[in-house]
From TrEMBL:
Residues involved in alpha-D-glucose 1-phosphate binding: Y100, G165, E180, K181, S191
Protein name per UniProt: Glucose-1-phosphate adenylyltransferase
Domain Nucleotidyl transferase stretches: 8-257
Annotated family: Belongs to the bacterial/plant glucose-1-phosphate adenylyltransferase family.
Assembly and binders: Homotetramer.
Function recorded in the entry: Involved in the biosynthesis of ADP-glucose, a building block required for the elongation reactions to produce glycogen. Catalyzes the reaction between ATP and alpha-D-glucose 1-phosphate (G1P) to produce pyrophosphate and ADP-Glc.
InterPro entries per the UniProt record, alphabetical: ADP-Glc_PPase (IPR011831), ADP_Glu_pyroP_CS (IPR005836), GlgC_bac (IPR023049), GlmU/GlgC-like_hexapep (IPR056818), NTP_transferase_dom (IPR005835), Nucleotide-diphossugar_trans (IPR029044), Trimer_LpxA-like_sf (IPR011004)
One GO biological process term: glycogen biosynthetic process
Gene3D superfamilies: Hexapeptide repeat proteins, Spore Coat Polysaccharide Biosynthesis Protein SpsA, Chain A
Entry keywords, A to Z: ATP-binding, Carbohydrate metabolism, Glycogen biosynthesis, Glycogen metabolism, Nucleotide-binding, Nucleotidyltransferase, Transferase
Gene symbol of the encoding locus: glgC
EC number(s) reported in the record: 2.7.7.27
Length: 424
């Protein structure tokens, strides 16, 4: 039997439904971020930078791209004989087969995996936040306070507090109250969904609550430990942390990367962000190409203009085309003489010539106003946009579309166009 002081369990099964067409075919942690990265690269890099070499990644929804991206963990130095990274999908057991029904249920179903390492502590992470954090410092805090559970927490604006689990602490950081998404929050210290449990405490709680439907950390495990009298502490974090769960927050977090002095630096020598980089040639900017305030990844060819945008790898921007304030993911081809303004275009999409995206006024999206907002035009992966069409704001397009799908060549602001079937 192996012995590890602390292992990490990374919850990466989320569908991320608030990202709309971006997560129709891919789990949220596998969504591209900052050009060449994917969202899951951040917690994985934090683990290896914090000296944690055993990480279980719990997948469920559309796991293929996530599994391919992580592989055997080489980019994060997590290809180990003992420990390393393990992908943990739900699997069929002899008596019944069941999906993960809640965050804690997912961890419970992998009790055997955790038992293998006989850890003193288990770190629970979610795979959909952008941040840098040294989990070792949090573990030192946990030990110093003889805590049973430590919750990473950070101050949020009071008006946003009801979206989070809220902790109320005494002067030593000991948690007096924990409220999951309260209507009237009594503090603005929000749980970041990052927990360190002493293993016996976690094990006991998971077994005790194993029959609880949709068993969840915030709703069930933490309140159970609190009521039982376990020592719960809040570890206050004041660094950069972004939940990129909505299209607007995802777009903003990407745009912050291209500030002259970005608040979140992807390139720090002492805290590297690792990713599975494809082996592709460097980017090419043609003589007539214009680029300013951008991230442009390898293999991209720019024949037009790109301003204040984040581009993945192997993208072509045709002659005479202008891209502004947009996120373009890898493998996208943009034809000639297009104008693309404040759009998110997912992987391997083909855009014809003379296409204008981001026209008109901001009208709320008719189908999903709470998802497609912020004036963005969002295009799902593997889509085709025919030449000569115009697409408005707060719109969503997915699939292989033809000129007949557009009313006089226009998809008006606030409209949604989803075509079934894949590109042949």
């Amino acid at each position: 039997m192996f012995k590890k002081e602390m292992i990490a369990m990374l919850l990466a099964g989320g569908q991320g439904s608030r990202l709309g067409v971006l997560t129709a075919k891919v789990a949220k942690p596998a969504v591209a971020f900052g050009g060449k990265y994917r969202i899951i690269d951040f917690p994985l890099s934090n683990c290896i930078n914090s000296g944690i070499d055993t990480v279980g990644v719990l997948t469920q929804y559309q796991p293929l791209r996530l599994n391919t991206h992580i592989g055997i963990g080489i980019p994060w130095d997590l290809d180990r004989n003992v420990g390393g990274v393990s992908i943990l999908p739900p699997y069929e057991k002899s008596s019944n087969s069941e999906w993960y029904t809640g965050t804690a249920n997912a961890i419970y179903q992998n009790m055997n995996y955790m038992e293998t390492y006989n850890p003193d502590y288990v770190l629970i992470l979610s795979g959909d936040h952008i941040y840098k954090m040294d989990y070792e410092v949090m573990l030192d805090f946990h030990k110093a306070n003889k805590a049973d559970v430590t919750i990473a927490a950070m101050p949020v604006p009071m008006e946003e507090a009801s979206r989070f689990g809220i902790v109320v602490t005494d002067s030593d950081g000991k948690i007096r109250e924990f409220e999951e998404k309260p209507e009237k929050p009594s503090s603005n210290l929000a749980s970041m969904g990052i927990y360190i449990f002493s293993w016996p405490v976690l094990k006991e709680a998971l077994i005790k609550l194993k029959d609880q439907p949709n068993c969840d950390f915030g709703k069930h495990i933490i309140p159970y430990c609190h009521e039982k009298g376990d020592r719960l502490f809040a570890y206050e974090y004041n660094g950069y942390w972004k939940d990129v769960g909505t299209l607007s927050s995802y777009w903003e977090a990407n745009m912050e990367l291209i500030d002259i002095i970005p608040e979140f630096n992807l390139y720090e020598e002492f805290w590297k962000i690792y990713t599975n980089s494809a082996n592709i040639p460097p980017q090419y900017i043609a003589e007539q190409g214009v680029v300013d305030r951008c991230i442009i990844s390898n293999g991209s060819e720019i024949y037009g203009e790109v301003h204040s945008s984040v581009l993945g790898g192997s993208i072509i921007v045709g002659k005479g085309s202008v891209v502004r304030d947009s996120i373009i993911m890898q493998g996208v081809t943009i034809g000639e003489n297009c104008v693309i303004d404040k759009a998110i275009i997912a992987e391997d999409t083909v855009i014809g010539d003379n296409v204008v995206i981001g026209v008109g006024s901001e009208v709320p999206n008719r189908m999903k106003p709470n998802i497609y907002s912020g004036g963005l035009a969002t295009i799902g992966e593997n889509s085709v946009i025919p030449s000569g069409v115009q697409i408005g704001k707060n719109t969503a397009v997915s699939g292989v579309t033809s000129i007949e799908d557009y009313d006089n060549g226009l998809l008006a602001s606030g409209e949604t166009l989803i075509k079934a079937g894949d590109r042949v």
